[in-house]
Amino acid sequence: MRRxxxxxxxxxxxxCNVCFAQIANESIPYSHDNAELEGYLAIPEGxxxxxxxxxxxxxxxxDYAKKRTDMLAELGYVAxxxxxxxxxxxxxxxxxxxxxxxxxxxxxxxxxxxxxxxxDAFKKTGQTDGLKIGAIGYCFGGTTVLELAYTGTxxxxxxxxxxxxxxxxxxxxxxxxxxxxxxxADSLVSDESLDATTDALDAKGVDWLLIRYAYAKHAFTNPDxxxxxxxxxxxxxxxxKRSWQHMKSFFDELLASE
Length: 258
What we know:
Blueprint: E1 3-6, E2 9-13, E3 16-20, E4 23-32, E5 35-44, E6 50-55, H1 63-74, E7 77-81, H2 94-105, H3 108-124, E8 133-138, H4 140-149, E9 157-161, E10 177-183, H5 191-203, E11 208-213, H6 237-254
Parallel strand pairs: 6-7, 6-8, 8-9, 9-10, 10-11
Antiparallel strand pairs: 1-4, 2-3, 4-5, 5-7
Helix pairs in contact: 3-4
């Protein structure tokens, strides 16, 4: 049933041994509002440290999102990448990606419900039982995990990488701790929107932090960002590495079993 995607690999270079964790992968079909969706589950070897939901960039559930899901499993988390568009709806065309993202986001209630459907599918796998659940998202996905947190669902920690955050509504209830990883050179996200978001989180007493990475543009974590031919978008290796380390520390604190 579960396909083993990464076998235990032993690389011997002189006297140096490098081991990679064993991970099981599984495609998980689910649906929402007549859309057939398919998520990607990564299960670590041994007892999981926690569970993490992953939401893709506006390109769809592509190999990059799956790679991040596997990386979380390599850290010991059971991880599930949701599908916000529909089975096999993946593109590298910015116009089509914008169209798909816009269609999902045009109705905020439905947008949040689509994200919640992914979280529910994750829980139905049985892999999250007894675990604290976090969520991460990239660009469109970064915005999405914040909107999911604003529903008051039972997420312990949320990390938005180069998303475009909006403040929660007055009626929203936020239970998750929130980390926003933002590129300081991101011309697609205004300081005003960041300030409005953090001010609103303050008003609700939310545990949050905003980290700005010098010279980093939008999509700074994606090594393929420069290939899209979009001037506001670029990979930044330092910001990528540092933001991943910040996420790891955040989850070490908030997803650990009590």
